[in-house]
Amino acid sequence: MRETLEILNPWWFGEKDSDLEKWRMQRIRWFPEWLRGLSLRPFSLNFLVGPRQVGKTTGIKLLIRSLIEKGVEPEKIIYLNAELSPSLERFQETLLSISKGGFSLIFIDEVTSLEGWWKPLKGLIDSGAFGKSSVTVSGSMSLKLKRQAELFPGRTGWGRMVEVMPLSFSGLVKVLNIGRKSSEIKKAFETYSRLGGFPASLNYHEKFYSDWVKALESDILKTGLSLKTSYQLFSSLLTKLPSPVSYQAVASDIGVSYKTVAEYLERFEDLFVLKLAYWRENGKISFRKEKKILFRDPFILHALSFWTRERFLEATLYENIIQEHLLRRFGEIYYYRNAFEIDCIAGDLKVEVKAGKPHRKYPRNVIILGKEDLPEFLLKLEKKVE
Fold first, then answer.
1. Per-residue confidence band for 206, with pLDDT thresholds at 50, 70 and 90
2. Three-state SS at 292
3. Distance from CA of residue 200 to its chain's centroid?
4. For the chain, percent helix, then strand, then coil, each to nearest 5?
């Protein structure tokens, strides 16, 4: 156990970290803004959620490096990857050892990979073992980790729930440090539409498509789902989007029950692969009507197309991008469909994305976006947050 911890924490010996060395070699790299959301004040229990390969681990390592540069003793910081624990018992032993080590900053990665991880941690927190520490746990299954966070009532101290997502379009513009010329903005949007906001995709890692698909397949099996059904589900969705879809239609398409479709979509929502947008009118939400489905990053859409060999409509890509950015801006995303359809309803905005679609008349309070309008709309939308 001690030997494993020494390998995972090279800063104890003044040695370089392999994740940071890989980050340093990337052409496009950045210090994640989400790190500012973590509380390092004792006692804190932070929850860090986000999809796999979005940069959570590298972000944690960058934070550790920054803290050491600011004078924090390396021996006071410890990083642990729960995926390397062969059993809950071994994980408990490791936590007990850490609790006696005098660490002020504790980072535990990929906890959702270990069933019951929260039990020993909760017990040690209740005992006061981490009273002088900031503890951050991360996971790649949002709903699961958020539910498990509820098992720590009154035990999180100054801690926070931080969601880590791939770079937004505005984030990419900042990272690329491009000007305000329309030609540069347009080029950046074309890059974003093709590569999305994952660090590896932006750095043109040749194997990232296959690596991402393999990671997804691993998560599918870990959550008890069928690879075949998952493959068929995504194939069906790619041929139907961006139109609203019903569970029954997809179920009929792939030969399963509508309950199975609902279960699978919920699991993939939990894995940050997709998000369901429900029908809404005048504040009334219908959970029974057809749903719009958005993929959480352009790269995910391209990767699923690569996996299933099913093409998607250009309109799906652009609509998904707008839906995701509105979701991040307002924390909600809906749609409306009656005599006409409104693709995106969030906050006080109603947006119809016409890129790749025929035009028709809409009410005056609906924002109509053509392909050429998308980059500036996204930049203005995110500027409001800042």
1. confident
2. strand
3. 14
4. 50, 15, 35
> Of 336, 334, 319, 335, which Cα lies nearest the Cα of 374?
319
Whether 1 contacts 93, CB under 8 Å: yes
Burial profile 212-249: b = 16 or more Cβ within 10 angstroms, e = fewer: beeebeebbeebebeeebbbbbbbbbbebbbebbebee
Give the H/E segment covering residue 161: strand 161-163
Please give the structure tokens belonging to residue 283. 């504040």
CB 32 within 8 A of CB 59: yes
DSSP label at residue 31: -
Q: pTM to 2 decimals?
A: 0.92
Q: Which fold has domain 2-163?
A: Rossmann fold (3.40.50)
Burial 144-174 (b: 16+ CB within 10 A, else e): bbeebbeebeeebbebeebebbbbbbbbbbe
Residues of the chain with CATH 3.40.50.300: 2-163
Distance of CA 337 to CAs 134, 244, 285, Å? 47, 9, 12
pLDDT tens digits for range 239-250: 999 999 999 999
Is residue 303 within a helix (H) or strand (E), and if so which, with residue range?
Answer: helix 298-308
**Of 264, 262, 236, nearest in space to 250 by CA:** 236
Domain 169-385 has CATH 3.30.450.20: no
> Tokens 């979701």 sit at which residue?
327
Residue 82 burial (CB count, 10 A):
20
The tens digit of pLDDT for each residue in 106-120 reads 999 999 888 999 999
Q: Which of 55-64, 316-325, 340-349 has the lowest average pLDDT? A: 340-349
For the record, the structure tokens of 115 come out as 């069933």
| Closest alpha carbon to 290 in 336, 252, 327, 238 | 336
The CATH 1.10.10.10 portion of the chain extends over 169-385
Predicted local confidence at residue 386, as pLDDT = 47
Q: Is the pLDDT of residue 291 over 90?
A: yes
Tokens of 35: 């790190």
